Amino acid sequence: MRLSSLLCCVSNKLEPSDELVIPKQAPVGVIARINVLLLILLPLTQSTVLTRVEYTQRGAQALFKSFADDDNPDVIGPGGVEKLCTEAGIPLEGAQPLLLAWQFKAQEMAKISRSEWLQGAEALRYLTLCMRISSLPVLAIALKELDDLVVHDKEPITVPSPVKKRGGVDSQELYNKTHYSQYASNRKAAFTELYQFSFTLAKPPQSRNLDIETAAALWSVLLAPRYPIITELAEFLNQENGSYKGANKDIWNMVHEFCQTIIDGELSDYEADGAWPTMLDDFVGWKKDRMSHSTGDTPQ
Predict the structure, then answer these.
(1) How many CA atoms lie within 13 A of 6 on its CB side?
(2) What single string gives the DSSP state of each residue in 69-105?
(3) Which of 102, 175, 279, 297 is the most buried (most CB within 10 A)?
(4) Domain 203-295's class?
(5) Which parts of the chain register pLDDT below 70?
(6) Could you say which of 3.40.50.880, 1.10.238.10, 2.170.190.11, 3.40.50.720 is the CATH number of the domain covering 3-186?
(7) Rounded CA gap, 67 and 61, in Å?
(8) What pLDDT is recorded for position 48?
């Protein structure tokens, strides 16, 4: 899922980036690390001498300003968020834009206020070099590591003990991994927090519901990496073409519960009288009917 596809409001015209260009087919983690390493290894004959320095609020302010809206300097809007992600090597497909919003505690989709930016940057306190572009690949690394841990449920990386004990930035680390360590101690709780945050972030402020297209896009991004059945649910909803108008908080939560409950890919453990939403009952019927046609059996 691209941020622009979900919101239909992100500008497609980005200003040319002065950042190091790496082929797009390289994985984002590799892109970010190459950017950082090349910046560190630039010869001292370059006009700019790079010095490793600690995070400063002044630096965070300057970075915010470079992406803020021209007509509202206290907000990074959709175009600025996309530009930030592009310059950092953060893919707009997948969950990383949501992880960015989650870590910065954003109140609106594809927008980051100045106060949200400063508290998020303070929490990460990533080490920087004396060039703006060097901070962005480090942010990309932080989001990629969170994506692996929280969304894809991969085993956590080893965090140095000084970070675990004191919550500081270890000299060998590019950013503060205090939050990472907390999430690693309970990956299930961390994912639930992200999942609930995403519903609140994406729904219109005065509404209790997500439109079904947005809900399906978010399920594909957040749940499909762990639960492949979500891909079929998205296909079902697409085929229904408007039969289901939206997803309220109960449906949002029960889709997650459904994924955790249904272990058998053939849905033999699905209880039709289990008070599931009609949408899920219909999906199960659709899937069983499709399986029966492929095997020639009669659906149960």
Answers:
(1) 27
(2) -SS-TTEE-HHHHHHHHHHHT--SSSSHHHHHHHHTT
(3) 175
(4) mainly alpha
(5) 1-54, 126-134, 160-172, 295-300
(6) 1.10.238.10
(7) 10
(8) 38
Q: For the chain, what are the domain ranges?
A: 3-186, 203-295
Would the CA dihedral through 156, 161, 166, 167 be positive or negative? negative
Separation between Cα atoms, residue 52 and residue 139, nearest integer Å: 16
CA distance 80 to 111: 8
- Burial of 151 from C-beta contacts in 10 A (0-12 / 13-18 / 19+): buried
The reply to whether 203-295 shares the fold of 3-186 is: yes
Residue type, 198: S
Whole-angstrom distance, CA of residue 39 vs CA of residue 51: 10
- Global pTM? 0.79
* Spatial separation of the C-alpha atoms in residues 8 and 188, rounded to whole Å: 31
Q: Is 210 helix (H, G, I), strand (E, B) or coil?
A: strand
Q: What is the pLDDT of residue 126?
A: 64
Output the CA–CA distances (angstroms, integers) from residue 243 to 124, 208, 239, 279, in the order listed: 43, 19, 9, 9
Q: Which residues contact 29 (CB under 8 A, 6 or more apart)?
A: 140, 141, 144, 145
Return the closest-CA partner of residue 100 out of 87, 89, 85.
Answer: 85
What's residue 271's pLDDT? 87
